[in-house]
Amino acid sequence: MTPMLDIVFILLIFFIVTATFLQEEGLNMQPPPQSPETPPDPAPVILVDVNDQGRVFVNQQQTDPERVLAAVSRFRAENPRSAVLIAPQYQADHGIVVLIWDDMQANGIPVSVQPAERVQQ
Amino acid sequence: MARRASRVNTEEEEIELNMTPMLDVVFILLIFFIVTSVFVKEPGVDVTRPDAVTTDRERPSILIAVTAADEVWINRRVYDINGVRGAVEQLIEENPRAEAMIQGDAAASSGLVFEVQEILGDMGVPVNISTRNN
């Protein structure tokens, strides 16, 4: 029985070693929820455009990517219920979108992302 | 004297460890590790993921990389955006409960990352955007 036990032990060690419980850090970036009919009182939207050159516009005003939060907070001061919609163009850097998303999330501002070509003006 | 010596001898012969319960335990451990083992499908390319603070810990088993040159890497191969669905379908067949994670390079096109995310979402695969925690 000893040789069999050896084999079983080797298999066991192999599976223990390969069972790396991979843990990754991640965000769940979502487009705005789709509903057939718009709710009666939709939250006002603060549109954050990111264009192909990586320039950021908060409600059409050009802003530094790092300072989107300040600009958004100004709009939210007028209307605390408003939500942020990030509308990046196709070539916009993924990093900028994640940066803005993360900034909003960290400050508890409702945020969603939708490609610019699908946002109805 | 001679009798005593012979008694010691027979006792030594009889000492043999019963391995069966231990073998049972080892088998159960082995089966546990075989069943729980998930082989992560690595994309096979390194990307510079963006930093973020508000992250969740996930345990994905399919990793999809989108590089700065807008190539989509799945399981060590480059795919066209049209080939992503087929490639993921194959991996899902192997492990139907797989969760996916997109490792987008900070300089990748956000549109491409979104398209990949949407394809996976359509297929009902839970998907997250991979980041680096700082």
From TrEMBL, chain B:
Superkingdom field:
Bacteria
Q: Which residues cross the membrane?
A: 21-40
Q: Which InterPro entries match?
A: ExbD (IPR003400)
Keywords attached to this entry:
Cell membrane, Membrane, Protein transport, Transmembrane, Transmembrane helix, Transport
**What Pfam families does the database record attribute to this sequence?**
ExbD
Chief site of localization:
membrane
Where is this protein found?
Cell membrane
Topological relation to the membrane, as annotated: Single-pass membrane protein; Single-pass type II membrane protein
What does the similarity note say? Belongs to the ExbD/TolR family.
Name of the protein: ExbD/TolR family protein
